[in-house]
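re: that complex we talked abt at group meeting.

here r the seqs, copy pasted straight from the sheet so there may be weird spacing, ignore it
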Amino acid sequence: MRKVHIVGNWKMNQSLADINAFSETIRTMNDLKCEAWIAPQAIHLNILQEKSNTIKVGAQNCSNQNSGAFTGELSPESLKDMGAHFVIIGHSERRAIFKEDDILLNQKVLKALENKLKVILCVGETLEERESGDFKSILKGQLLNGLKDISASDKESIIIAYEPVWAIGTGKVASPEQAQEVHAFLREELKAVEALDAQATPILYGGSVKPSNIEGLLENTDIDGALVGGASLKGESFKELCELSK
Ligand code: 13P
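got the structure back, here u go
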């Protein structure tokens, strides 16, 4: 049985005052059935962790190197040292704005795994790609290239997130049927990755998830949780998302 994961991606948001208010609200989350994770800005990892012991914290990105002359980069080794539990790799904003390609993303995945961080590998198509008809081959490429050369010992450290770019921050959530169809496709493709157990690998959905639509999404056999942007910023809605996720 795959455990439901509710993961908040705070992107470049949240002041210290916001973090204090968030932590105060989620302090009362007890007996959660799901994994509740948040990726704040990396500079806030420790402060969020100290204030919110009901959640696990992680990063939104990391370097493909542990150390060296890489000004401004985030070392996966240092993230691990500082208590990060996981890292998100290949978010569509990293792919589109920072031009990260599958080769670099695969190097990041391998380096994060080497440092015993769990990896949330994101895949997703743009509206143009979806309308072109063959968007599934794009998703397959992102998935299999991203996971190249992982080993069987990493089996339990991989989580996939399907985030259709057209549903991110737009209020246009993929319908549960649309999401389930793609998740089933991704699970089928995961069977080609020998190191993984496709049935046991969590596949999260991301794109305008909120308390009002989470239950419909989670009713589907291949949807194992959510990667949430906007609705994870307020303690009340993050808490509600977690409580609705059984
Ligand atoms: P929204 O939930 O704000 O659409 O963002 C989704 C996302 O990009 C999470 O990584």
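couple things i noticed - Residues 176-190 form the longest helix (15 residues). The domain at 5-244 is CATH 3.20.20.70 (TIM Barrel).
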